[in-house]
Amino acid sequence: VPDPSKIVCCGLNYADHCREQNIELPKNLVLFSKFPSALIGHGDDITWAAGTTEQPDYEAELAFVVGRTARNVAAEDAYDYIAGYTIANDVSARDVQFGDGQWIRGKSFDTFCPLGPYLVTADEIGDPHGLGIRCRVNGQTMQDSSTAELVFTVPQILSFISRTATLLPGDVVLTGTPAGVGVFRQPQIFLQPGDVVEVEIDRLGTLRNVVR
Known about the structure:
Blueprint: E1 7-11, H1 15-20, E2 30-34, E3 39-41, E4 45-46, E5 56-57, E6 60-66, E7 82-89, E8 92-93, H2 94-100, H3 104-107, E9 113-121, H4 122-125, E10 132-137, E11 140-146, H5 154-162, E12 172-174, E13 196-201, E14 205-211
Parallel strand pairs: 1-12, 3-9, 4-14
Antiparallel strand pairs: 1-2, 5-8, 6-7, 6-12, 7-9, 10-11, 10-13, 13-14
């Protein structure tokens, strides 16, 4: 998936992630985007320019890739438009994200969307809502949850987006992150040069990137 027209992301879409913030579950899907220039692959380095952020964070995410042009798709038909599933890391500059009062700049640094290592076709996965999802930093488990915690399901997500924006083949949708992100830990934990970040999802493999 070298050049998606869109990378669409879902915020606050895991029940356990909402619980760790002591907030109610969202009544409507929260969407934001990452610029396609943020995309890197398995084994590529996560980097940022000196002085741009002091709080880079990790976010393990299930992603799906659109396989057919999708516009005004009903939720019950959504699986017909999904080519497959992969792993994403929604790397986030928290000081920029929260300092701006909106999310797109802090989410869209170059290299802040690792994706891979495989695109597993939808027929191999079937129902994507019972997959274990984990993030490790230097071998220490930071996130350990299941896609059963999704507030809005994959079909609901695709349908909701397609009502207002046509999804094109190759577009990538990140479905949200579970509890355990660094910014909400006590004490907070942020990525540092030399860190090895691994995101693992059952049946999809392990996405590995090093912070440089």
